Amino acid sequence: MKYISLILLSAAAVAIAGCASTPSVSTPGDLVADAVLKPTRDSEASGSVHFEQKDGRVWVIASIGGLSPGRHGFHIHEKGDCSSPDGLSAGGHFNPTGTQHGNPASSPHHDGDFGNLEADMNGSAELKTSFPVSQISLDKGAANSIIGRGLIVHAGEDDFRTQPTGNSGGRVACGVIALK
Q1: Domains in the chain, ordered, with CATH?
Q2: What is the pLDDT of residue 17?
Q3: What is the pTM of this model?
Q4: Cys-Cys with 31: which of 16, 99, 138, 168 at CB 3.0–4.6 Å?
């Protein structure tokens, strides 16, 4: 009986450790934010993005639909303003350090470079990733805070080379990142 209990306890520990790679439930002191993405003119793209700052990282979980199949640039922009029909009121990419645009998996890149979303044949895209708080923060007082900034999904793929935008085309969805 003790042997079976030890096996069950070991299995539970492995299962819990496997869940440690993504946030589960926020705890007091964690910062949490959301953005609701709405379509720009002539677009059907929409969705939601959840942010959670925990253990020195900002976790990003996005669910977006209404996209054309393929890759779409995904960036944080300077202004939390989605009032223009084309999304241009959100300004340029969020870049407090003045770094070149690039792939978020390597350097250099803007703090607001999230790379590409991959939409399936139904136009749905999911993204689960994280960034160090040295890149982006949910702390309103931080120089790299993304609270109140715009979040944009683009019509095309980010090429990671073209400066300063990645040549990812028009803006198909816009949202504002807000603390919960």
Answers
A1: 24-179 (2.60.40.200)
A2: 38
A3: 0.83
A4: 138
